[in-house]
Design a protein that fits this description.
Number of domains: 2
Radius of gyration: 17 Å
Largest sheet: 3 strands, antiparallel
Strand content: 15-25%
Helix content: 55-70%
CATH class of the largest domain: Mainly Alpha
Number of helices: 8
Structural class: alpha+beta
Oligomer: single chain
Strand order of the largest sheet: 1-3-2
CATH topology of the largest domain: Arc Repressor Mutant, subunit A
CATH superfamily of the largest domain: Winged helix-like DNA-binding domain superfamily/Winged helix DNA-binding domain
Distance between the termini: 33 Å
Shape: elongated
Length: 173
């Protein structure tokens, strides 16, 4: 089932790429073409495709669309379509702009940032901050060091910096 959704998304992105390779496809357009109820239904697939470098993804608030994301297929995605399969080596379960907020904070500080400082800077609650920190560590975007449980500190990794730079570059386009 998941493999099928990844392939459907890549197929729609490839169709768009063949017509106009410079532009992204909105998550709203994908939602409509896939016949799913909400953009959030496809967000996990988009995040995993991005994390595994099958697509470019731009997250943010877009005029007339609200909070949304845009996708564009990469050459690895085209190759996956030819092969008929997507290999998801890294899978993130938490998605969205909150992850980018924390990565930006970690990148600004360039040292370990405590859980309380993250909560204060982002406005997230303690539970969500812990979940996102766990996920970012799992995905290799941040290094986590436990202090006194349940406290922790985070530091951005090189992969996290690349992820953040890519997100910012795409946001400028």
């Amino acid at each position: 089932m998941e493999q099928d959704m990844y392939m459907k998304i890549l197929s729609l992105l490839k169709e768009h790429y063949d017509k106009d390779p410079l532009y992204f496809v909105t998550s709203s357009d994908l939602r409509a073409k896939l016949g799913v109820g909400s953009v959030d239904d496809i967000r996990p697939y988009a995040e995993n495709l991005e994390l595994n470098r099958y697509v470019y993804k731009q997250e943010g608030f877009f005029s007339g669309m609200g909070t949304n994301f845009l996708l564009k297929i990469r050459h690895k995605g085209i190759d996956a379509l030819k092969a008929g399969a997507v290999e998801i080596n890294k899978e993130c379960k938490l998605h969205g702009p909150e992850k980018l907020k924390i990565l930006e904070l970690l990148n600004e500080k360039d040292y370990y940032v405590g859980k309380r400082d993250i909560i204060k800077a982002t406005g997230l609650d303690e539970y969500d901050t812990t979940l996102i920190a766990d996920e970012m560590e799992y995905c290799g975007l941040a290094k986590r060091v436990e202090a006194t449980y349940p406290a922790f500190t985070l530091k951005i990794t090189d992969e996290g910096k690349e992820y953040l730079t890519a997100a910012k570059t795409l946001a400028k386009k």
